[in-house]
Write a structure and sequence with these properties.
alpha/beta
Length: 335
């Protein structure tokens, strides 16, 4: 029997898994897939929505041949550990945020550049077009197959110091950032005090005041209960959050050809459905965060923020590649 690793928990299994009970199926499929991610298995969480959509698609396409077991909430480790597992083939599938992928394949730093995308449609055109295909080809050289980029939503700033309306409001505030140089330099250029930190430490750090804030999509704020420990949510929309549905190349190459094709198609179809679901759920997320007591605001002048972060583009141009960056900027400016 072939076994392939993914990580999450679905449907009726969610309640059981929440109690820490292992979930097993009543039958053994020919191919067993397990898929991993680090956030909660919540109906509003973009990672969880992606995982469930993929499970639904591949099991419907190959009933009885493929079964997907899901492992959310860092059950197989943080993003970095999941990514390493994909490279070594000890984990078969993962849903991982772009900034962590960029630490492995630096050309992905392109997608984290601040204020690159004005809206999700621009991001989708770049991710699904020639630029995204080139990025995926680069990642394949690192031993990982990209099945596409799902919708994380735009990343926003949350903190307990003050609302962010102008770049000056970021000054001096300690923001947890991902352990990624683009995010560290972004917050430094805005005058903030970036504190790189693994995801598993962040909620406690906010509770204890070790950091003043962080930056994540509103859906992740809601699904991971950050309204309990954070007062202000400012819709800075500074970075589009691409979350990548990935598979170990070793695992992918070991599959029969028809299953490989089904996996590729299921990934594409799942991502299309996930993007729609995340976009439709944003209003409900905002209402939930408002009801939970968060104070929510928009920024006043995007241009002022763009001017502050311009040096970040210059700093990372050589790592990303001037041609790739110029093509992405051209694609965005055409919209």
């Amino acid at each position: 029997m072939k076994k392939i690793l993914v990580a999450s928990l679905t449907g009726a299994a969610v309640a059981v898994a929440a109690q820490g009970v292992a979930v097993t199926s009543a039958y053994a499929a020919e191919i067993e897939l397990k898929l991993a991610w680090l956030t909660a298995d919540s109906p509003s969480d973009p990672y969880a929505i992606t995982a469930h959509a993929f499970k639904t698609e591949i099991e419907a396409a190959l009933p009885g041949r493929v079964e997907v077991a899901l492992f959310p909430n860092r059950q197989l480790g943080d993003d970095k550990e999941i990514l390493e597992g994909l490279q070594f083939g000890t984990i078969d599938m993962g849903i991982i945020t772009n900034a962590v992928v960029a630490n492995l394949e630096p050309t992905y730093q392109l997608l984290d550049l601040p204020f690159l995308f004005g809206n999700a449609a621009q991001a989708h055109d770049v991710l699904d077009g020639p630029v995204g295909q080139d990025l995926a080809a680069n990642l394949a050289d690192d031993g990982i197959v990209s099945l596409g980029a799902a919708e994380g939503g735009f990343r926003n700033m949350i903190n307990n110091t003050r609302p962010v309306r102008t770049p000056e409001d970021v000054t001096g505030v300690k923001y947890r950032t991902m352990q990624n140089p683009v995010f560290i330099e972004m917050f430094s250029s805005l005058g903030g005090s970036p504190v790189p930190m693994a995801w598993g430490e962040v909620f406690t750090a906010m509770q204890q005041g070790t950091v003043d804030g962080l930056e994540i999509p509103a859906s992740v704020v809601n699904s991971n209960n950050f309204a309990e420990v954070t007062k202000y949510l400012s819709f800075t929309r500074h970075t589009y959050s691409a979350i990548h549905l990935l598979m170990s190349k070793r695992s992918f190459d070991s599959l029969p050809e028809d299953v490989q094709q089904a996996v590729l198609y299921a990934g594409e179809t799942a991502i299309a459905a996930q993007r729609v679901a995340v976009a439709e759920g944003e209003r409900d997320v905002v209402e939930a965060l408002t009801a939970a007591g968060m104070e929510i605001n928009d920024i006043e002048d995007v241009g002022a923020f763009r001017a502050k972060v311009a040096p970040v583009y210059e700093q990372f141009e050589s790592t990303i590649g001037k041609d790739l960056l110029d093509r992405a900027l051209a694609a965005v400016s055409d919209q």
